[in-house]
């Protein structure tokens, strides 16, 4: 927090996390694409991640997110032999889109638009769970209300919330992602015990 305050005193603006720019012309123009599945991103290279085909139209939610193998040698071998270097991936469904609207939306500013209201009404139990998390984080001072450039009200991480950004946003992972993480952790523990 002291670093953030000192950087502000020196004339720098905090863009997100621990990134600072002297002028907004130096803001990363691709950040909104990388932190949102609403635009396609095809990652090239070892460890690159991608999200493609995620479209919200008339209750038709499709698309995939995937990550290339992070091992450079394995990645190169796959490409040179004509294989796909994807190591992990999953389909994007409505629950994943709803979770992402919080997990990435609160980082950059989450505004409840028509597509998000539609997702929330289609998944009332999950929406109530996320509402409870929002209330808890808001009461703890980790979230704040704001108005975007067009005057729409939204919610985003506060200065306190940014200190615990990854931890706070991980609460909003989808049930499928939480399950996959728990399974992976359990598998890793079993390997360590063997």
Automatic annotation (TrEMBL):
- Protein species of origin: Bradyrhizobium icense
Q: Per its record, how is this protein called by name? A: Uncharacterized protein
**Organism taxonomic ancestry:** Bacteria, Pseudomonadati, Pseudomonadota, Alphaproteobacteria, Hyphomicrobiales
């Amino acid at each position: 927090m002291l670093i953030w305050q000192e950087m502000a005193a020196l004339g720098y603006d905090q863009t997100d996390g621990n990134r600072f720019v002297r002028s907004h012309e130096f803001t990363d123009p691709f950040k909104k694409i990388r932190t949102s599945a609403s635009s396609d991103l095809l990652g090239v290279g070892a460890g690159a991640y991608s999200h493609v085909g995620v479209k919200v139209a008339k209750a038709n939610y499709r698309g995939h997110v995937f990550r290339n193998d992070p091992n450079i040698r394995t990645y190169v071998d796959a490409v040179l032999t004509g294989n796909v270097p994807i190591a992990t991936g999953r389909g994007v469904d409505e629950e994943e889109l709803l979770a992402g609207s919080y997990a990435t939306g609160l980082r950059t500013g989450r505004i409840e638009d028509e597509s998000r209201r539609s997702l929330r009404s289609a998944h009332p139990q999950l929406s109530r769970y996320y509402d409870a998390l929002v209330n808890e984080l808001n009461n703890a001072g980790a979230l704040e209300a704001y108005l975007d450039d067009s005057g729409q009200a939204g919610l985003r991480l506060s200065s306190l919330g940014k200190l615990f950004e990854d931890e706070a946003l991980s609460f909003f992972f989808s049930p499928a992602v939480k399950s996959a993480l728990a399974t992976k952790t359990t598998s890793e523990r079993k390997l360590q015990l063997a």
